[in-house]
Amino acid sequence: MKRFTTPAIVLGATLVVAGCAAGTAENCDALNANSVFQDFACKQGGGYEERLALIRAETRAKVASTQLTAAETAELQAEAEVMARDADVLEDRLAGLNADLAAMRLRIDSVTARNDSQRAQLTALREELSEAEQNLAQVQAAASVTPEQIAALQGEIARKKAAVSDILGNMGVVE
């Protein structure tokens, strides 16, 4: 009997040691227990409790990560709303500036047209003044000119010079 008992004890001890080795948290899955010995080892060695603690820790970490992600999402959403409001304000300012720019362009075009018109008048008056001065020189060169004709030509020249000065003054040009 002694012989039978010793191999049984050795076999039993081997199975217990093998079961204990299988009783780690990684190997203990209550849904997929491979043998009675592994199940026994997981129960006795605390493998099931360790696995449960590991699963709970992983779950807490995932919940915390999800909460962090939700907080980040809310923060990003708030930033996006602020940016949208800022964009609306900038668009309104841009529209106002574009309207101001269009009004300035109209004023510039108006002043340019007025200046072009005044330049044309100035050119015409200068030509007339030049003609009047030439006529005066011709009249003075001729001996048969009366003092009244000379005075009339000088008056016409003075009026044209005054008109040229007025136009230049309106244009802001000092001659």
TrEMBL record:
Signal peptide, first to last residue: 1-18
Keywords in alphabetical order: Coiled coil, Signal
Coiled-coil region: 73-142
Protein name (database record): Lipoprotein
Lineage: Bacteria, Pseudomonadati, Pseudomonadota, Alphaproteobacteria, Rhodospirillales
